[in-house]
Amino acid sequence: MIYPNKIIRFNQSILGKMLFVMDKLDSKIINIEELYTETSEHFEEISEFFYSLDVLYVLDVIDYDLEKGLLIYAKGD
Q: Which tens digits make up the pLDDT trace of 26-70?
């Protein structure tokens, strides 16, 4: 589910689905609810959406402003 293998294709994995999240986040600040609304058609369950956010956060692609509740696209230097 998280990564592709012999049974799970890339576009069915979290790695493939997080590309849809990155498309919506590109140079934008957005709250999680709005982001999920815009990308929910690509996820079978909300847990997949949160897994994709987890992976993006660990890879330092996104940042989360806890006080404002906003996701921020973390641009590389």
A: 767 888 999 999 999 999 999 999 999 999 999 898 999 889 889
d(CA 29, CA 9): 30
Using CA atoms, how far residue 41 sits from 20, 27, 64, 77, in Å, is 10, 22, 23, 32
Going through the chain in order, the beta strands assigned E by DSSP cover 29-31, 62-65, 70-73
Residue 13 backbone class (left: φ over 0; alpha: ψ -120 to 50; beta: rest): beta
Model pTM above 0.90 = no
Structure tokens at 10: 């890339």
